[in-house]
Amino acid sequence: MTTTTFGRPKRSAADLLFDICNTVFLLVLLVLTLYPVLNTLAVSFNQAQDTVRDSTFLWPREFTTLNYSTLFQDGLIYHAFFISVARTLLGTVSSVFCTAMLAYTLSRKEYVLRGPISFIFIFTMYFSGGLIPTYMLIKNLHLYGTFWVYVIPGLIGAFNLIVMRSFMEGLPESLVESAQIDGATHFSIFLRIILPLSLPVIATIALFVAVGQWNSWFDTFLYNSSNINLSTLQYELMKKLQSANMSVGGTAESAFASSKNIQANIVTPASIRAAITVVATVPIIVVYPFLQKYFVTGLTLGGVKE
């Protein structure tokens, strides 16, 4: 029998040693995880020339907002931000809804084409048509130079479809059968029963799709680079970074400014890169806490089978 002290089990030396090692390991892991984030944030608010001299720090030594003002000095960046938000919201909602509808259809055992259609989608995960055929398809569908090129091509994702279908196949069949006895159609069953029960997997897929939509810039480069009204935030930030890499410009107000003032108004690729990283990451960080509960649940789908 384990001896007790004040009603609590007495811990052995091995248990105490394990707790100490576990705590130390988690603290080291916490530092390694937070350091890149804090360093990037500090560099984005630090004076560029000071960053070039020594970039190893966790707090801005010479605080400045010049890096951010350089990013947002062009009014186009605000319109690009609006386009990115619009494509993320519309693309995520439409993709999750369409994928969920198809996943429900393929999860029905009475659907005779569920096998061939599932094979077609799985086949696309291993073999792709390539960039040129995709470009030609987009152009033939008259999506080139339009906003819908951000939404329609990503309506169905093969991986997301498989995850949703697997989750829906695990739902109790008796719920669907009882609803059908009451005269409900498949669309009513999908909206009123399947979707509410599939909230964890929907939140997980929604986060994946939203991050992909928000970070995407290559489709803008391919299909809307000549249309500034449809330019996205990530594409504009990419152009800013390329411009900073090619030519490190200053913002001195006159040629007679002092050397110290000139250095205070210089941005570098490293400082611009840090500011871009923060701007691109903050929206996702703000949204993630609201989906964290469902996201963790969704990641454990299929982990336990009864």
TrEMBL record:
<keyword id="KW-0472">Membrane</keyword>
<comment type="similarity">
    <text>Belongs to the binding-protein-dependent transport system permease family.</text>
</comment>
<feature type="transmembrane region" description="Helical">
    <location>
        <begin position="147"/>
        <end position="168"/>
    </location>
</feature>
<keyword id="KW-0812">Transmembrane</keyword>
<keyword id="KW-0813">Transport</keyword>
<dbReference type="GO" id="GO:0055085">
    <property type="term" value="P:transmembrane transport"/>
</dbReference>
<dbReference type="Pfam" id="PF00528">
    <property type="entry name" value="BPD_transp_1"/>
</dbReference>
<feature type="transmembrane region" description="Helical">
    <location>
        <begin position="270"/>
        <end position="291"/>
    </location>
</feature>
<keyword id="KW-1003">Cell membrane</keyword>
<keyword id="KW-1133">Transmembrane helix</keyword>
<dbReference type="InterPro" id="IPR000515">
    <property type="entry name" value="MetI-like"/>
</dbReference>
<feature type="domain" description="ABC transmembrane type-1">
    <location>
        <begin position="81"/>
        <end position="291"/>
    </location>
</feature>
<dbReference type="InterPro" id="IPR035906">
    <property type="entry name" value="MetI-like_sf"/>
</dbReference>
<feature type="transmembrane region" description="Helical">
    <location>
        <begin position="116"/>
        <end position="135"/>
    </location>
</feature>
<feature type="transmembrane region" description="Helical">
    <location>
        <begin position="16"/>
        <end position="38"/>
    </location>
</feature>
<feature type="transmembrane region" description="Helical">
    <location>
        <begin position="76"/>
        <end position="104"/>
    </location>
</feature>
<protein>
    <submittedName>
        <fullName>Putative aldouronate transport system permease protein</fullName>
    </submittedName>
</protein>
<feature type="transmembrane region" description="Helical">
    <location>
        <begin position="189"/>
        <end position="211"/>
    </location>
</feature>
<dbReference type="GO" id="GO:0005886">
    <property type="term" value="C:plasma membrane"/>
</dbReference>
